[in-house]
Amino acid sequence: MYRDLYDDYEENRIWCVTHYSKFIQTYNSTIIFIHFLIPLLINFFSAVFIIIMTARQHNTSNSKLTFYQQLIKQLKEHKPILISSILVVILSLPRLIISLLTTCMKSSSKPLLYLIGYFISFLPSMLMLFIFVLTSDLYFKQFKESIKSCFKRRQ
């Protein structure tokens, strides 16, 4: 790791830029991918697992429908779980892209675009309530009961 100083005569500034070895850059990128992909894969595959196991359980207890019909029924019933997993992936992509960019940019060169991208990267954590709770009937019902009980306590 080493640092360089660059004189920027247009903006009358001096930039300090840190350079990392190839190993540290590769390690950083690997850790970023692991912290991005592993939770998202666990989330998605657990949703698929829940759907398949529920369909299998309903198939053994209810012999009127085939496993494929039960699977389609469970997919329709648990659609919010799959949609929320996919939404989290889509909303987390800007954070992944920004964290993997290693190039420098001039501070006056399209700062609004980078600022918007930076704030978009926080959307998944800010929208967890809307993504998971409000899209699921069961979770939404429990959420409403919790809110009602909180208001009853205040009165």
UniProtKB/TrEMBL annotation:
Family matches, as InterPro entries: GPCR_Rhodpsn_7TM (IPR017452)
Regions that span the bilayer: 31-55, 81-101, 113-134
Q: Which domain of life is it from?
A: Eukaryota
Q: Where does the UniProt annotation locate this protein?
A: Membrane
Question: Could you tell me the keywords of this UniProt record?
Answer: Membrane, Transmembrane, Transmembrane helix
Gene Ontology cellular component? membrane
Where the record annotates domain G-protein coupled receptors family 1 profile, the positions are 1-132
Q: Please give the name of this protein.
A: G-protein coupled receptors family 1 profile domain-containing protein
Q: Which organism is it from?
A: Adineta steineri
Taxonomy of origin reads: Eukaryota, Metazoa, Spiralia, Gnathifera, Rotifera
